[in-house]
Specification:
heterodimer, A: 156 residues, alpha+beta, two-stranded antiparallel sheet, 10 strands, 15% helix, globular, B: 139 residues, 5 strands, elongated
Chain lengths: 156, 139
């Protein structure tokens, strides 16, 4: 499975979505064991039902940000019956574990929101030599929670 | 292995029925706290998606994984290997897919500097997900 990522010798997780830079270099990026596919820099994980908010964060810390992977950013989204909530975290400076950077409160899916997350470009394009970074319209990547709300509101 | 796969698929279909019956109670059972201090490094709660009786190596998992369905009706089947144990869950495919890909356009267009990337050129940031249903297995 190209999408799955192995995070220790006997464990593998299927992320819900991930992004990998075209020009990522190994090292510093790490390859998924047994492949020549680098780990993504950005992963999106969605939690429903039995995967609660705490578990979503615990999985981020203990699975996405293990020493085996080189994932830099995880965006966690928890879906409730009529609400949703999100956080984003970056790999800890120690190389394993995470630091949560921004968290939303529990948001009503029927109410517009102007909350945003700002993801640093140097983490999105981590592992890419800076001269090869693409030109982007803003210095960092802004994710609007309203985009997420509009995508899911009618399906809840 | 075929018998085990058959059992897992039956369990997935059973779980789908169960999930439809419990959807409305999910919000009540979710944790309200978001304190980082509350997040334990190991889980001590019962995990209903875990199949505890069959521990396997990663190599066995790699053989098994493509044989398991990605979809069951309107549900997406999520399969992980957790310390050697298979972890199988089903989630509503439409909602899950919408949430997991909601930011795709924002992220890709930002990385492309709001320009259209010709099909012959690999974009600077590529998405990898299995949200599409084109790989629906026959089961």
């Amino acid at each position: 499975m190209q999408v799955d990522y192995r995070y220790n010798g006997r464990a593998s997780k299927s992320p819900d979505n991930s992004f990998v830079p075209r020009d990522i270099q190994v090292p510093p990026a790490k390859l998924k064991p047994g492949t020549n596919i680098p780990y993504p820099t950005v992963v999106i994980d969605v939690g429903h039902k039995h995967e609660g908010w705490k578990k979503l964060k615990r999985n981020a810390r203990t699975k996405a940000f293990t020493r085996m992977t080189s994932i830099q950013i995880l965006v966690g989204i928890k879906i409730f019956t009529s609400h949703f909530r999100a956080f984003w975290a970056r790999r800890s400076a120690t190389g394993t574990g995470m630091n949560i950077q921004e968290t939303t409160p529990k948001l009503d899916a029927r109410v517009p929101t102007n909350l945003t997350f700002t993801l640093p470009k140097n983490l999105v394009f981590w592992g890419v030599p800076q001269p090869n970074w693409p030109v982007t319209p803003t210095p960092n990547l802004t994710l609007h929670m309203e985009t997420l709300r509009l995508a899911i509101a009618d399906l809840m | 292995m075929a018998a085990i796969i058959s059992t897992i698929i039956t369990d997935i279909e059973d779980h789908e029925t169960y999930s439809q019956g419990t959807q409305d109670t999910a919000e009540q059972s979710s944790e309200p706290s978001d304190s980082e201090a509350d997040v334990a490094s190991t889980s001590v709660t019962v995990d209903y998606g875990l199949i505890p009786d069959w521990s396997m190596t990663f190599e066995t998992y790699e053989l098994l994984r493509p044989k398991l369905p990605k979809w069951s009706g309107s549900y997406k089947v999520i399969v992980d290997l957790d310390e050697g144990f298979l972890h199988v869950r089903v989630v509503p495919a439409d909602l899950h897919g919408a949430a997991s890909t909601a930011f795709n356009y924002s992220i890709e267009s930002w990385a492309n500097n709001f320009r259209q990337v010709p099909p012959s050129i690999i974009p600077p940031l590529r998405t990898r997900n299995d949200a599409g249903r084109s790989s629906h297995p026959s089961h």
